[in-house]
Design a protein that fits this description.
There is one protein chain. By secondary structure, the chain is an alpha/beta fold. It is built from 22 helices and ten strands. It has an eight-stranded mixed sheet with strand order 3-4-2-5-1-6-7-8, with helices on both faces. Strand 6, helix 10 and strand 7 form a beta-alpha-beta unit. It is elongated and about 105 Å long. The termini are far apart. The relative contact order is 0.10. GO terms for molecular function: ATP binding; calcium ion binding; GTP binding. It holds the Pfam family EH.
Length: 534
């Protein structure tokens, strides 16, 4: 009877996978997909996942009203035009353009794109010809696109008339993309802050993906500092009414195109914000496997809840008479069914699908054709979440350590990496990096006066005496301790006049709001100590 215990043994020994993407594919096909198909998950929520969804590069989705600089933003990142690109103040981009890497430059139309098994767009077929005629893939050889793909979307319109004439469900298409991309960037123009009905609908469709959303306030160089403060405040207020999260959404302020700044007053702010946004985008390849794992867990939780909802409705349906009336009654009391499932199975209310949307979808279905609860399918998914996912998490960490330098390279990401235009070059601890003279020497006479009041012995002050002076900066001990380690170059527990001047220079750097270096840069080493053999 050894076969009787195989199922229990299987639960104790999770699957063994070689790579994260292979593991995700296998888990989805063998454990989650049977549950989805049994309870018609794909008709209610989102189409089945394909191999390409697990293998594709990280994707960035750009969303915004017309003329907020979406296409210019892509052009700025790539530092090169892409096929099908049109930029102008009027609504120019009228298509979804997937900008991807390819050996030759060219365009693939939507209908051809959705039959390509290597591309993750096959399930877009469901949106019909009206959408596919407005969907293209622009391919070009570009170093940025070797690590990520970018999806440009049509500008969101403010008028009701244009919105109706799209011919496809714009919000539903964006929701489909939102499930599969790694980062969603909402672009706002500093002059056009109004959030139209369609934009509001789109942001609501991105619900449950708030962790992927970043906001960019573009064209911020066209307004004065005081106006920029007001515009930023107004944007946060508008977003607060639509994005229902307790945390403040991250907003990057800048001018993302390669033209000169119109009002250069906030140049430093724009540079720092751009650097932060670039770091965020550059980290996407490194976190891609984790994001796919996270999305699969999200999907599994929704599929479980969906199975409970469908099976409860089936259980309540009469077998012969009064089916239509019972169907209406069940759909109207769906909220109560949610509460009951929540209580019976200890499920968080956040895992349930949107009540109104679910009620609308149920109207079109024959509830008698639904399946009753099949615990074996649910147990398999629970087993996957409890054991297999934990094993994949270990594999994710291993893959990260084997490939530590997975960052987006090329294009605009290269421009600020090295040389004098790197972020923070020649500022803070980097001040005087190109100068022949020791930068600390400028203020050394002032530091020397303090040094000689601390009763130096043999040209050096003790740690206790130096501390009395250094604590006057009011910096915490942890920071002063780091400054001491950097300044005490010969590690004798005392400071000579040059080391003391260096310590004061580093205190000044910290007080001006700059970070301290991990190791002392060569240009800050006092001239008398530069010849000391290491």
């Amino acid at each position: 009877f050894s076969w009787l215990g195989t199922d229990d043994r299987r639960k104790k020994d999770p699957e063994v996978f070689q790579t994260v993407s292979e593991g995700l594919k296998k888990l989805y096909k063998t454990k989650l997909l049977p549950l989805e198909e049994h309870y018609k998950f794909h008709e209610f929520h989102s189409p089945a996942l394909e191999d390409a969804d697990f293998d594709n590069k990280p994707m960035v989705l750009l969303v915004g009203q017309y003329s907020t600089g979406k296409t210019s933003f892509i052009r700025y990142l790539l530092e090169q035009d892409f096929p099908g690109m049109r930029i102008g103040p009027e609504p120019t981009t009228d298509s979804f353009i997937a900008v991807m890497h390819g050996t030759t430059e060219g365009q693939i139309p939507g209908n051809a794109l959705v039959v390509d098994p290597k591309k993750p767009f096959r399930k877009l077929n469901a949106f019909g010809n009206a959408f596919l005629n407005r969907f293209v893939c622009a391919q070009l050889p570009n170093p940025v696109l070797e690590s990520i793909s970018v999806i440009d979307t049509p500008g969101i319109l403010s008028g009701e008339k244009q919105r109706i004439s799209r011919g496809y469900d714009f919000a539903a298409v964006l929701e489909w993309f939102a499930e599969r991309v790694d980062r969603i960037i909402l672009l706002f123009d500093a002059h056009k802050l109004d959030i139209s009905d369609e934009f509001s609908e789109v942001i609501k469709a991105l619900k449950n993906h708030e962790d992927k959303i970043r906001v960019v306030l573009n064209k911020a160089d066209q307004i004065e500092t005081q106006q920029l403060m007001r515009v930023y405040g107004a944007l946060m207020w508008s977003l607060g009414k639509i994005v229902n999260t307790p945390e403040v959404i991250r907003v990057y302020i800048g001018s993302f195109w390669s033209h000169p700044l119109l009002i250069p007053d906030n140049r430093k702010l724009f540079e720092a914000e751009e650097q932060d946004l670039f770091k965020d985008i550059q980290s996407l390849p490194r976190n891609a496997a984790l994001r796919k794992l996270n999305d699969l867990i999200k999907r599994a939780r929704l599929a479980k809840v969906h199975a409970y909802i469908i099976s409860s409705m089936k259980k309540e349906m009469p077998s012969v008479f009064g089916k239509e009336n019972k169907k209406k009654e069940l759909i109207n009391s769906l909220g109560e069914i949610y509460t009951r499932i929540e209580r019976e199975h200890q499920i968080s209310p956040g895992d349930f699908p949107n009540l109104k949307k679910m009620q609308e979808q149920l109207q079109a279905h024959d509830l008698n054709k639904f399946q009753p609860l099949k615990m074996k399918l649910l147990d398999t998914v629970d087993d996957m979440l409890a054991h297999d996912i934990a094993q994949l998490m270990v594999l994710v960490r291993q893959e990260e350590t084997q490939r530590p330098n997975q960052v987006v390279k090329g294009g605009a990401f290269e421009g600020t990496m090295n040389g004098p235009f790197g972020h923070g070059y020649g500022e803070g601890a980097g001040e005087g990096i190109d100068e022949v003279e020791w930068v600390v020497a400028r203020d050394k006479p002032m530091y020397d006066e303090i040094f000689y009041t601390l009763s130096p012995v043999n040209g050096k002050v003790t740690g206790a005496n130096a501390k009395k002076e250094m604590v006057k900066s009011k910096l915490p001990n942890t920071v002063l301790g780091k400054i001491w380690k950097l300044a005490d170059i010969d590690k004798d527990g005392m400071l000579d006049d040059e080391e003391f001047a260096l310590a004061n220079h580093l205190i000044k750097v910290k007080l001006e709001g700059h970070e301290l270096p991990g190791e002392l840069p060569s240009h800050l080493v006092p001239p008398s100590m530069r010849k000391v053999p290491e």
